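fold-stage: in
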Amino acid sequence: GPSNSEGAGKVSLLKKVPALKDGDFTLAECTAILLYLSRKYNTPDHWYPSDIQQRARVDEYLSWHHANIRANAPKTMWIKVLIPLFTGQPLPSEKLQEVMEGLSTSLKQFEERFLQDKAFIIGNEISLADLVAIVELMQPVGVGCDIFEDRPRLREWRRRVEDAVGKELFFQAHEMILNIKELSNIQIDPQLKEQLAPVLMKMLK
């Protein structure tokens, strides 16, 4: 989300997270950060393949992802936890239904166009495309919308991602998302509520 602090402005011109500071170099946007780190540290080839066509498949998914999976999956968390937390009012169930319908359409395209009958998005090995996808798709799970339950192909893909990353690391990385409903019990500063409530509501329009 946005941050108006002076420190945030020094790390990211956009004043948003995530942001990376590597010496004097700063970078914003999660996809750009992932690609930068994969290149800098010479990661195993399967994460962002050197083969130009395989790399293009990763890029293709990342481009599609933002307007589809990312446009829908995180909204489940805003509707069920974050907006009620900051506004003090639950949203109508119709709003969640609308988002879930949009997400269902995206998941159908994800399975049919990208996953198909492959183990991972671009083939037999995990890539950055799978990492970016799974992080978004765990957000509905964290608020009680198990999108994997009735989708065996998607469920098996998730299991393979868990195994490839390592189950312990996988659940450690998603710990905050899976426990997001615990935020309902915390006290929010009234001034912060006043600032963020309109921003969160605008995200759902």
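fold-stage: in (second)
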Amino acid sequence: MARGRAAYEYTEAEDKSMRLGFLLIAAGLLSLLGLGCCWLRPALQERGGGGAANCTVLAVRQSGERFACTFWCGAACRGTARYPCLQVLVRTSRSAAPALLHEDERQLRTNPKCSYIPPCARDDQENSENVTYKQKYWKEKVGSQPFTCYFNQHLRPDDVMLKRTHDETVLLHCFLWPLVTFLVGVLIVALTACARSLAARAEAIQRKKH
């Protein structure tokens, strides 16, 4: 009676392990599929046709346009302020034509006309001061010193980025953790199947002895 009960508990534990393994396998596959369709594919499209280059500042100016931004002053409080448009024109080592510099791909999509979007403050004067500080930085601190920038000839040939939103580390993690989840699930299923097979063989040998 006790022997039969112990065998039943062991079989139930095996079944739970198999269900956990299959759940991890499905989660890993769905994560890879979801990240590939919703995030990884656009990231690779942004990186496709692009590369790194050396950039040199040609001109730093305020275009005279002002753009709206949204500031938050509480959980249910927000408003609209404005900031001036700063443009940093650079020359790349890949092309003699001037290009407009942007912080990253996200800033480029938010406002393709400007090189910098300040943290939105309620006071327009504070936004203007932040933009002026950034303008002085590019004129006085950087000046004619070359720096690394990134471009994409296919998507935005007239724009360059100071940094990439989707770098190699992010893309690696995008693949790594779903793959680890999938492999752990496969390992659990394989070990459980092996344990069940060994237990069945041991039981068959025991029966032959008796």
